[in-house]
Design a protein that fits this description.
about 375 residues, Beta-Lactamase, five-stranded antiparallel sheet
């Protein structure tokens, strides 16, 4: 993390003070040695070599002191160069990486945000400074993120990635992977932390597309059988009542054989659009496979479900439609069953009603056997 100007100035003063102290100590030692040598020479007979040797010792100490000073100066210069290089490298990495680098203070607020934060499109440059990191998460994730930050500030952050959904200015949000690392030595009571945010928006979009593809019929855009059954099971578990309706397009195989599958596909899309336009707001429409479609009618009575189905059959029956350059007549057989028992039970009852409608001439609605019995008993 980038050092503050105050820390840099303090480090420089410490180096200068150390170098000056060492130089002074060596110089004093040299002067003392020379003085001792001179005082000892007074009154010595000619030819006595002890003084030159003493003087030589003083000169040696002075030389060592000078060498030490040079070494300290060179070391100081090397440290300054290393510090400058490290700062330049950090600035380069922080500016060029697509990851967002944050320094989080002991209070959980952001003290620094790299330029990549503005490139996410969620925040303007400088907007994150002083903001609480946990407050950026969506409400359902804030407590969990606050706990992760506390763990990092306490020096116990595990080196793992977490998925977080962060909110920016104007309510715009995006998914990120978050990793927290502790800053500071072990003696610090309260440390700082560095957070790395890595966008996973593309991955989340792909996951959503795959999930939608798994629950959507690609031709019509309706829910597929898997989604329909899941919704059916949910409503059965809620025990809120309701009905299910199934439709099967009449003579669809003959239409495909006569006009081709391209025309048949367009008929399916047309019928899907018709169903969408005629059902109630809370109903679920699905293509269950081939030419079979279903409607889930939550909380609907049998009479209400029957009214919806008859509205569809009336709009479809007895009319001809132009599909590209081909004029086709489309009709459907339909069956209605009550939401009761299991999902398989409901589907089986509605399908049995459809088969009865086909057996009675097609282009009509039939109720499931149990519903017909109930209705006849009321009469």
């Amino acid at each position: 993390m980038e050092l503050s100007p105050h820390a840099i100035r303090t480090g420089r003063r410490a180096l200068v003070t150390s170098a000056g102290t060492a130089c002074l100590a060596f110089s004093n030692a040299a002067a003392a040695a020379a003085s001792m040598a001179l005082s000892g020479y007074a009154g010595r007979p000619a030819g006595d070599l002890s003084w030159p040797l003493a003087a030589l010792g003083g000169a040696t100490i002075a030389t060592v002191a000078a060498i030490g000073l040079v070494c300290l100066v060179r070391q100081r210069s090397a440290l300054r160069r290393a510090l400058a290089e490290a700062q330049a490298l950090y600035r380069l990495l922080a500016a060029s990486t697509s990851d967002v680098v944050l320094r989080v203070g002991a209070d959980g607020c952001i003290a620094y945000a790299s330029p990549a934060a503005a490139r996410t499109g969620l925040w303007r440059e400088g907007e994150l400074h002083g903001a609480a990191l946990a407050a950026l998460a969506r409400p359902e994730q804030r407590d969990a993120l606050a706990g992760l930050i506390e763990t990092a500030l306490d020096g116990e952050a595990p080196p793992v990635w977490h998925e977080v959904h962060l909110v920016g200015a104007g309510g715009k949000s995006a998914w990120f992977e978050l990793r927290l690392e502790t800053l500071g030595d072990d003696r610090a009571v309260r440390r700082e932390a560095v957070a790395i945010l890595r966008s996973i928006a593309e991955r989340k979009a792909l996951e959503d597309q795959l999930a939608e593809a798994g629950l959507t019929d690609p031709m019509t855009g309706l829910s597929n059988r898997r989604a329909f059954v899941a919704m059916l099971e949910h409503h059965l578990a809620e025990q809120a009542g309701g009905c299910i309706a199934l439709f099967d397009l009449d003579h669809f195989r003959a239409l495909n054989d006569r006009h081709g599958h391209a025309t048949g596909d367009k008929v399916l899309v047309m019928f899907a659009q018709l169903l969408r336009s005629l059902v109630r707001g809370g109903d679920t429409v699905a293509r269950l496979g081939g030419e079979t479609f279903g409607i889930l009618l939550p909380a609907a009575s049998v009479d209400q479900a029957e009214a919806v189905v008859r509205r569809v059959l009336t709009a479809l029956s007895g009319t001809t439609r132009a599909v590209d350059s081909v004029i086709v007549r489309v009709s459907a057989s339909a069956g209605v069953a009550r939401l009761d028992g299991s999902a398989d039970d409901a589907l089986r009852s509605a399908d049995l009603a459809v088969q009865m409608a086909k057996a009675k001439g097609r282009d009509r609605l039939e109720l499931a056997p149990r519903l017909r019995i109930e209705r006849h008993s009321r009469w």
